[in-house]
């Protein structure tokens, strides 16, 4: 048996290196990485600016915990808050998406004294116990049912259902575009009504921007759009372009109620991820990557309704391709043609989560590959088991 515990269905090749939005396997085959290593390679693989910043920081001071003030940690906090909309001006650094959501939910529970949370059907927020309480996936929840925090799960985009948020709810956590659900966009009027309902009931509003944040939508964050600002915003994935890092951005009301000792982490806010984050923010500004991400999204809408694809959803570099068949055989065929894409919780939706600096030619080449697949059916696309 392999020493590594098997936890994921895996691609049928071993990767050895990558450059930008391209990766290469051990046989020298190259792929467009339109999945970005689970939305983590925000600036692509082996980004020179990030690599240099990480290398220099490793050589200077690889680690010191939050017990010691570090100029690089303070600079990373200031720049990240500067990138976020006004009103989200404080940050707590941690290590992953689940940890960011866990801490945001804990803060809401601690500060409101309430014991229930709310989230949306289709939402994915991580696998630690509070994050899992918010996640509506029954298969993941079932083994831990009696350990989870009581949670109200509401249908997305249903304004009437928001009346269920009462004064027992500490926090409502949502993804502004639900990625795993199959790239489902929340409407402006729903988000505005949700903000109003949270204000009326005293619940904290948390935006999980672990996928939508850091420029992926062609704007810094979904927060601030439609005049809606959450009380907290969580980040991870591409924030440090592959160096593990998470963050909870928060408003002054939340931050001013955090006492020393309320939040903790050994690795969070270490100097190496902070150096990587600073390099990411610098590249986004210097290379015009918000505009590039927006153009990628526009071009997918124009060019990718072809072959088995019936509809394109999402924005920027968070794109859903709804296919006439089921998505998995299409994904397998694209893999054979040199494109890594992702599936989703919706069996008919393929996801694209490419680096935000992916060149336009990737969309043209993907359009040609989809055209090649033609109006295929599941039967013609299906692979024998194990491929
Ligand atoms: C929207 C969202 N929230 C939270 C998480 C959990 O992040 P992590 O895997 O870093 O714990 C994920 C991971 O896929 C995610 O997509």
Structure, explained:
The chain is α/β, with parallel strands linked by helices. The protein has 2 domains: 15-33 and 288-381, Aspartate Aminotransferase, domain 1, CATH 3.90.1150; 48-286, 3-Layer(aba) Sandwich (Aspartate Aminotransferase, domain 2), CATH 3.40.640. The chain is built from 13 helices and 16 strands. It has helices at residues 36-39, 48-60, 71-83, 97-112, 129-134, 138-141, 188-201, 252-256, 271-286, 289-303, 327-336, 361-373, 378-381, and strands spanning 15-19, 22-25, 30-33, 90-94, 116-120, 151-154, 169-174, 177-178, 184-185, 204-208, 232-235, 246-250, 309-315, 318-323, 339-340, 349-352. The strands form 4 sheets. A 7-stranded mixed β-sheet has the order 4-12-11-10-7-5-6, sandwiched between helices. A 4-stranded mixed β-sheet has the order 1-2-3-15. A hairpin with a 2-residue loop joins strand 1 and strand 2 (22-25). Helix 2 runs antiparallel to helix 9 and helix 3 (71-83) packs parallel to helix 9. The longest helix is centred in the N-terminal third of the chain and has 16 residues, at 97-112. It is globular and about 55 Å long. The model has no long low-confidence stretch (mean pLDDT 96). Pyridoxal-5'-phosphate binds at residues 96-98, 101, 124-126, 175, 179, 208, 210-211, 236. Residues 96-98, 101, 124-126, 175, 179, 208, 210-211, 236 line the site of pyridoxal-5'-phosphate (PLP).
Quick rundown:
With 387 residues, the chain is of the alpha/beta class. It has helices at residues 36-39, 48-60, 71-83, 97-112, 129-134, 138-141, 188-201, 252-256, 271-286, 289-303, 327-336, 361-373, 378-381, and strands at residues 15-19, 22-25, 30-33, 90-94, 116-120, 151-154, 169-174, 177-178, 184-185, 204-208, 232-235, 246-250, 309-315, 318-323, 339-340, 349-352. It folds into two domains: 15-33 and 288-381, Aspartate Aminotransferase, domain 1 (Alpha-Beta Complex); 48-286, Aspartate Aminotransferase, domain 2 (3-Layer(aba) Sandwich), CATH 3.40.640.
